Amino acid sequence: MDRLTRHASSYRSICAQCRRRLLPVRTPARPLSTSTPNAADTPDPPLQPPSDISTPEPAAPTQRNADPTDPRPQQDQPSILSTIRQSQSNNAFTRHEPEPDSSTGTTLKGIWDNLRTDPNSPHAITTRLSTEYPVLPEPHHLHIYSTRHNTHITLTKPDRNPIISVSAGTIGFRKAARGTYDAGYQLGAYVMGRIQQQGLLSQIQHLEVVLRDFGPGREAVTKILLGSEGRNLRGRVVRVCDATRLKFGGTRSKNARRL
Protein backbone atom coordinates (compact mmCIF):
# COMPACT_ATOMS: atom_id res chain seq x y z
CA MET A 1 0.00 0.00 0.00
CA ASP A 2 1.67 3.16 -1.17
CA ARG A 3 1.85 6.41 0.61
CA LEU A 4 -0.92 8.08 -1.44
CA THR A 5 -3.36 5.33 -0.45
CA ARG A 6 -2.43 5.63 3.22
CA HIS A 7 -2.98 9.37 3.15
CA ALA A 8 -6.37 8.86 1.52
CA SER A 9 -7.41 6.32 4.19
CA SER A 10 -6.32 8.64 6.98
CA TYR A 11 -8.28 11.58 5.54
CA ARG A 12 -11.61 9.74 5.33
CA SER A 13 -13.11 11.90 8.03
CA ILE A 14 -12.33 15.06 6.05
CA CYS A 15 -14.83 16.42 3.59
CA ALA A 16 -14.33 15.85 -0.11
CA GLN A 17 -13.43 19.49 -0.87
CA CYS A 18 -10.70 19.58 1.82
CA ARG A 19 -9.45 16.16 0.78
CA ARG A 20 -8.96 17.35 -2.83
CA ARG A 21 -7.07 20.39 -1.52
CA LEU A 22 -4.77 18.42 0.78
CA LEU A 23 -4.07 15.36 -1.39
CA PRO A 24 -1.46 15.78 -4.09
CA VAL A 25 -2.64 15.72 -7.71
CA ARG A 26 -1.76 12.50 -9.54
CA THR A 27 -0.27 13.19 -12.95
CA PRO A 28 -1.01 10.69 -15.73
CA ALA A 29 1.82 8.43 -16.73
CA ARG A 30 1.21 8.98 -20.48
CA PRO A 31 -0.25 11.73 -22.69
CA LEU A 32 -3.93 11.75 -23.53
CA SER A 33 -3.36 10.90 -27.21
CA THR A 34 -0.74 8.53 -28.51
CA SER A 35 -1.63 9.07 -32.23
CA THR A 36 0.87 10.70 -34.50
CA PRO A 37 0.11 14.16 -35.94
CA ASN A 38 -1.65 14.30 -39.32
CA ALA A 39 0.42 14.62 -42.44
CA ALA A 40 -1.61 17.65 -43.56
CA ASP A 41 -0.63 19.58 -40.41
CA THR A 42 3.04 19.53 -41.25
CA PRO A 43 4.20 21.47 -44.34
CA ASP A 44 5.86 19.50 -47.09
CA PRO A 45 9.56 20.07 -47.55
CA PRO A 46 10.48 21.91 -50.75
CA LEU A 47 11.27 19.65 -53.67
CA GLN A 48 14.89 19.53 -54.65
CA PRO A 49 15.97 18.29 -58.05
CA PRO A 50 18.08 15.20 -57.97
CA SER A 51 21.75 15.90 -58.11
CA ASP A 52 22.45 13.16 -60.67
CA ILE A 53 20.11 14.66 -63.34
CA SER A 54 21.56 17.41 -65.48
CA THR A 55 19.52 20.21 -67.14
CA PRO A 56 19.04 19.46 -70.87
CA GLU A 57 20.34 21.93 -73.36
CA PRO A 58 17.82 23.67 -75.65
CA ALA A 59 17.40 21.87 -78.93
CA ALA A 60 18.93 23.49 -81.94
CA PRO A 61 16.49 24.72 -84.58
CA THR A 62 15.89 22.25 -87.32
CA GLN A 63 17.08 23.15 -90.77
CA ARG A 64 15.86 22.02 -94.12
CA ASN A 65 17.80 19.50 -96.03
CA ALA A 66 20.02 21.12 -98.51
CA ASP A 67 18.46 20.76 -101.95
CA PRO A 68 20.41 22.19 -104.89
CA THR A 69 17.18 22.55 -106.92
CA ASP A 70 15.32 24.53 -104.22
CA PRO A 71 15.50 28.26 -105.08
CA ARG A 72 14.59 29.30 -101.54
CA PRO A 73 17.51 30.47 -99.36
CA GLN A 74 18.69 28.23 -96.61
CA GLN A 75 17.30 29.61 -93.35
CA ASP A 76 15.70 28.44 -90.17
CA GLN A 77 12.01 27.44 -90.46
CA PRO A 78 9.79 29.01 -87.75
CA SER A 79 7.35 26.78 -85.95
CA ILE A 80 3.64 26.79 -86.76
CA LEU A 81 2.71 28.06 -83.28
CA SER A 82 5.01 31.07 -83.52
CA THR A 83 3.63 31.90 -86.97
CA ILE A 84 0.04 31.85 -85.68
CA ARG A 85 0.91 34.04 -82.71
CA GLN A 86 2.69 36.52 -84.93
CA SER A 87 -0.28 36.79 -87.27
CA GLN A 88 -2.68 37.28 -84.35
CA SER A 89 -0.56 40.03 -82.87
CA ASN A 90 -0.41 41.81 -86.22
CA ASN A 91 -4.18 41.63 -86.81
CA ALA A 92 -5.25 42.32 -83.24
CA PHE A 93 -5.90 46.04 -83.75
CA THR A 94 -6.34 46.19 -87.52
CA ARG A 95 -9.80 45.70 -89.02
CA HIS A 96 -10.54 46.54 -92.61
CA GLU A 97 -14.13 47.54 -93.31
CA PRO A 98 -15.41 47.24 -96.88
CA GLU A 99 -16.34 50.46 -98.56
CA PRO A 100 -20.11 50.92 -99.05
CA ASP A 101 -21.16 50.36 -102.61
CA SER A 102 -24.45 51.76 -103.90
CA SER A 103 -24.66 49.06 -106.54
CA THR A 104 -24.83 46.29 -103.91
CA GLY A 105 -27.45 48.09 -101.83
CA THR A 106 -25.37 48.57 -98.66
CA THR A 107 -26.29 52.25 -98.42
CA LEU A 108 -29.74 53.65 -97.70
CA LYS A 109 -30.14 54.89 -101.27
CA GLY A 110 -29.09 51.52 -102.65
CA ILE A 111 -31.56 49.69 -100.42
CA TRP A 112 -34.38 51.97 -101.52
CA ASP A 113 -33.47 51.49 -105.18
CA ASN A 114 -33.50 47.71 -104.73
CA LEU A 115 -36.92 47.86 -103.05
CA ARG A 116 -38.36 49.79 -105.97
CA THR A 117 -36.80 47.62 -108.68
CA ASP A 118 -37.01 44.17 -107.08
CA PRO A 119 -40.35 42.56 -108.10
CA ASN A 120 -40.36 40.34 -104.98
CA SER A 121 -39.79 43.11 -102.45
CA PRO A 122 -42.63 44.00 -100.03
CA HIS A 123 -42.86 47.49 -101.51
CA ALA A 124 -43.30 46.14 -105.04
CA ILE A 125 -45.83 43.52 -103.91
CA THR A 126 -47.91 46.12 -102.06
CA THR A 127 -47.85 48.44 -105.08
CA ARG A 128 -48.88 45.61 -107.41
CA LEU A 129 -51.72 44.49 -105.14
CA SER A 130 -53.04 48.03 -104.78
CA THR A 131 -53.01 48.33 -108.58
CA GLU A 132 -54.62 44.96 -109.29
CA TYR A 133 -57.10 45.07 -106.38
CA PRO A 134 -57.97 48.70 -105.70
CA VAL A 135 -59.83 49.62 -102.53
CA LEU A 136 -63.50 50.06 -103.42
CA PRO A 137 -65.40 53.10 -102.17
CA GLU A 138 -68.13 52.70 -99.59
CA PRO A 139 -71.13 51.05 -101.33
CA HIS A 140 -74.84 51.58 -100.97
CA HIS A 141 -76.60 49.20 -98.58
CA LEU A 142 -79.78 47.19 -99.05
CA HIS A 143 -80.98 46.03 -95.62
CA ILE A 144 -83.47 43.14 -95.55
CA TYR A 145 -84.93 42.60 -92.09
CA SER A 146 -87.28 39.64 -92.11
CA THR A 147 -89.08 38.43 -89.02
CA ARG A 148 -91.86 35.88 -88.77
CA HIS A 149 -94.37 38.72 -88.44
CA ASN A 150 -93.17 41.24 -91.05
CA THR A 151 -90.49 42.11 -93.65
CA HIS A 152 -88.64 45.45 -93.80
CA ILE A 153 -86.43 46.66 -96.70
CA THR A 154 -84.27 49.80 -96.45
CA LEU A 155 -81.96 51.24 -99.12
CA THR A 156 -79.29 53.58 -97.71
CA LYS A 157 -76.56 55.82 -99.07
CA PRO A 158 -72.87 55.10 -98.38
CA ASP A 159 -73.13 57.40 -95.34
CA ARG A 160 -76.04 55.21 -94.06
CA ASN A 161 -78.75 57.80 -94.66
CA PRO A 162 -81.95 56.09 -95.89
CA ILE A 163 -83.28 56.54 -99.42
CA ILE A 164 -86.14 54.03 -99.40
CA SER A 165 -87.61 52.43 -96.29
CA VAL A 166 -90.74 50.26 -96.67
CA SER A 167 -92.34 47.21 -95.09
CA ALA A 168 -95.06 44.72 -95.99
CA GLY A 169 -97.68 46.95 -94.36
CA THR A 170 -96.72 49.81 -96.71
CA ILE A 171 -97.98 47.93 -99.77
CA GLY A 172 -101.30 46.90 -98.24
CA PHE A 173 -100.74 43.74 -96.21
CA ARG A 174 -102.38 43.62 -92.81
CA LYS A 175 -101.98 41.65 -89.61
CA ALA A 176 -100.81 38.03 -90.08
CA ALA A 177 -100.50 38.44 -93.87
CA ARG A 178 -97.45 40.70 -93.40
CA GLY A 179 -95.30 37.75 -92.29
CA THR A 180 -96.02 35.50 -95.28
CA TYR A 181 -93.72 34.56 -98.14
CA ASP A 182 -96.01 36.30 -100.68
CA ALA A 183 -95.79 39.59 -98.78
CA GLY A 184 -91.99 39.47 -98.83
CA TYR A 185 -91.93 38.66 -102.55
CA GLN A 186 -94.23 41.52 -103.51
CA LEU A 187 -92.30 43.88 -101.25
CA GLY A 188 -89.01 43.02 -103.00
CA ALA A 189 -90.57 43.57 -106.44
CA TYR A 190 -91.99 46.92 -105.26
CA VAL A 191 -88.55 48.12 -104.10
CA MET A 192 -86.87 47.14 -107.39
CA GLY A 193 -89.47 49.00 -109.40
CA ARG A 194 -89.19 52.08 -107.22
CA ILE A 195 -85.38 52.16 -107.64
CA GLN A 196 -85.80 52.23 -111.42
CA GLN A 197 -88.57 54.86 -111.28
CA GLN A 198 -86.52 57.26 -109.13
CA GLY A 199 -83.42 56.83 -111.34
CA LEU A 200 -81.23 55.51 -108.54
CA LEU A 201 -79.39 53.01 -110.74
CA SER A 202 -77.03 55.74 -111.96
CA GLN A 203 -76.09 56.57 -108.37
CA ILE A 204 -75.62 52.99 -107.18
CA GLN A 205 -72.23 51.80 -108.44
CA HIS A 206 -71.65 49.23 -105.68
CA LEU A 207 -74.25 47.59 -103.48
CA GLU A 208 -73.98 45.61 -100.25
CA VAL A 209 -76.85 43.34 -99.25
CA VAL A 210 -77.32 43.01 -95.48
CA LEU A 211 -79.60 40.16 -94.34
CA ARG A 212 -81.05 39.95 -90.84
CA ASP A 213 -83.12 37.22 -89.17
CA PHE A 214 -84.71 34.20 -90.81
CA GLY A 215 -88.33 35.04 -91.57
CA PRO A 216 -90.19 33.97 -94.74
CA GLY A 217 -89.40 37.27 -96.45
CA ARG A 218 -85.64 36.59 -96.39
CA GLU A 219 -85.81 33.91 -99.05
CA ALA A 220 -88.51 35.81 -100.99
CA VAL A 221 -86.39 38.95 -101.42
CA THR A 222 -83.37 36.80 -102.33
CA LYS A 223 -85.39 35.25 -105.16
CA ILE A 224 -86.28 38.76 -106.37
CA LEU A 225 -82.57 39.74 -106.57
CA LEU A 226 -81.73 36.55 -108.47
CA GLY A 227 -84.75 36.82 -110.76
CA SER A 228 -85.72 39.06 -113.64
CA GLU A 229 -86.79 41.93 -111.32
CA GLY A 230 -83.25 42.32 -109.98
CA ARG A 231 -81.28 41.91 -113.21
CA ASN A 232 -80.30 45.62 -113.27
CA LEU A 233 -79.18 45.63 -109.64
CA ARG A 234 -77.70 42.13 -109.36
CA GLY A 235 -74.45 43.00 -111.17
CA ARG A 236 -73.68 45.83 -108.74
CA VAL A 237 -73.65 43.65 -105.62
CA VAL A 238 -70.11 43.48 -104.19
CA ARG A 239 -70.85 41.97 -100.78
CA VAL A 240 -73.52 39.95 -99.00
CA CYS A 241 -73.38 39.77 -95.21
CA ASP A 242 -75.56 38.55 -92.36
CA ALA A 243 -76.31 40.92 -89.47
CA THR A 244 -78.48 38.60 -87.40
CA ARG A 245 -78.18 39.40 -83.68
CA LEU A 246 -76.61 36.72 -81.53
CA LYS A 247 -77.31 36.69 -77.83
CA PHE A 248 -74.55 35.83 -75.37
CA GLY A 249 -76.09 35.67 -71.93
CA GLY A 250 -77.82 38.97 -71.22
CA THR A 251 -81.29 39.38 -69.77
CA ARG A 252 -83.87 36.62 -69.63
CA SER A 253 -85.75 36.07 -72.87
CA LYS A 254 -89.52 36.20 -73.26
CA ASN A 255 -91.42 32.99 -72.93
CA ALA A 256 -92.14 31.18 -76.16
CA ARG A 257 -95.59 31.83 -77.56
CA ARG A 258 -97.90 28.82 -77.42
CA LEU A 259 -100.87 28.58 -79.78
Can you walk through the features of this model?
By secondary structure, this protein is α/β, with parallel strands linked by helices. The protein is built from eight helices and five strands, in the order αααααβββαβααβ. The protein has helices spanning 3-10, 16-22, 80-90, 108-117, 122-132, 181-197, 216-226, 231-234, and strands at 140-146, 151-156, 162-167, 207-212, 237-242. It has a five-stranded mixed sheet, with helices on one face. A hairpin with a 4-residue loop joins strand 1 (140-146) and strand 2 (151-156). The longest helix is centred in the last third of the chain and has 17 residues, at 181-197. The model has no long low-confidence stretch (mean pLDDT 77).
Put simply, the count of helices is 8
- What distance lies between the first and last C-alpha atoms, to the nearest angstrom? 132 Å
Strand content: 5-15%
Sheet/helix structural class: alpha/beta
Main beta sheet: 5 strands, mixed
